[in-house]
């Protein structure tokens, strides 16, 4: 796996953020997000899903990601591998880490929480997954989730299942539904074929980023 580590200015230990990509894999979009978080003062690691590959072919992406999304233990393995790298960075405060993920990366962030990892916050965009029985109760931090109202991959039934799972587990959760937005609305347009129901929404992309930054400011401030 080949991730992208962004380090803030200075020499002191800082809170840190894992950044998980959509199912197509790590791209410059997530690398830029990690860099932006470093500019805010966080150590940020945008982690890899496919061994350095970016899967621009939707069929290839689905063939790889659907089995992954059905295998919580494998998702946790990827998440823990990235978390180990982030914790080993000397600038990282290992007790102050959050996870932010998009699509498949968001599902991995949630599975880290369900595995009992001590995170300060979890944010998931387009990754509204439910856990195995009893495991969502192991999440010990606030969870923020964002989804487009017109996302056919995360339809209302999936949203309802996610919120019911969070509520039953007693998690501190929030869900923001961005009106008129499709799946992966946060992701700038790409020059390859995408799945039906995928599309960029510039205004909501900016709003979702601000919501994520606000969550970090609340749960993982640069100075305590």
UniProtKB/TrEMBL annotation:
Record flagged with keyword Hydrolase: yes
Organism domain of life: Bacteria
What does the record give as the organism's lineage?
Bacteria, Bacillati, Actinomycetota, Actinomycetes, Kitasatosporales
List, in alphabetical order, the Gene Ontology terms for molecular function in this entry: hydrolase activity
Keyword Iron assigned: no
This protein's UniProt keywords: Hydrolase
Tell me the ranges covered by the Dienelactone hydrolase domain, including all copies. Answer: 3-218
Q: Any idea what this protein is called?
A: Dienelactone hydrolase
Identify the Gene3D superfamilies for this entry.
Answer: alpha/beta hydrolase (3.40.50.1820)
- Sequence similarity: Belongs to the AB hydrolase superfamily.
